[in-house]
Design brief:
Length: 195
């Protein structure tokens, strides 16, 4: 009986944090990063290409297309996970969209998610305006310090996943799982929405 009560108390103290990246995790869009190299060459990168790129201090990076959600396509494998998390209820659970996009994009992201049936009032939006993988792990670190004990993180970037996985060393007694999402590549690149 004592063990049952201890397990019940632990369950009551559990605070779940479910975190989803946006680009190439929940949706694939046509937003591109525009880059001017040190030699003056102009390049474009998709979010998935940028996820494996090593930023250079002598390059100029323009992320202004990410202030909008351009031609979004739903990645249903992960939006279904988001739906299930929301349907499980928000008591003892925080559900967050954590993206490198700048805060100016929040309205476009909310509108897109509402357009595919989400109640965005149940979602925390954190738009970092920073593509450094440790910006995401730092935000999650802060949430853990505020009481999160069970973290599940979804992102298409291996660098972001690795940065969140490092939190296991800092918090070895907590449940921290980071999942690399690979579904965006399956989306038809030629699809154009009719709305």
């Amino acid at each position: 009986m004592k063990l049952l009560l201890e397990n019940w108390r632990e369950y009551l103290r559990e605070s779940k944090l479910r975190v989803f990246d946006f680009d190439d995790t929940l949706a694939k869009s046509d937003s591109k990063i525009h880059i001017t190299t040190d030699a003056g060459e102009n390049l474009e990168m998709t979010p998935s290409e940028y996820a494996t790129h090593e930023p250079r201090g002598d390059y100029l990076y323009d992320f202004t297309e990410f202030d909008q959600v351009i031609n979004p396509r739903e990645i249903k494998q992960i939006t279904n996970v988001l739906r299930n998390a929301i349907n499980a209820g928000t008591e003892g659970r925080e559900i967050a969209i954590l993206t490198a996009r700048a805060p100016e994009a929040e309205g476009s992201i909310r509108a897109y998610l509402e357009g595919i049936g989400f109640d965005t009032s149940k979602i925390t939006f954190e738009l970092l305006g920073d593509s450094d993988p440790h910006a995401k792990s730092s935000w999650i670190h802060d949430r853990i310090q505020m009481g999160a004990t069970d973290v599940l993180f979804f992102d298409d970037s291996g660098k972001n996943v690795a940065a969140v996985e490092e939190l296991k060393d800092v918090f070895p007694d907590l449940k921290i799982r980071a999942r690399k999402v690979r579904y965006a590549d399956d989306i038809d690149e030629n699809y154009v929405r009719d709305d």
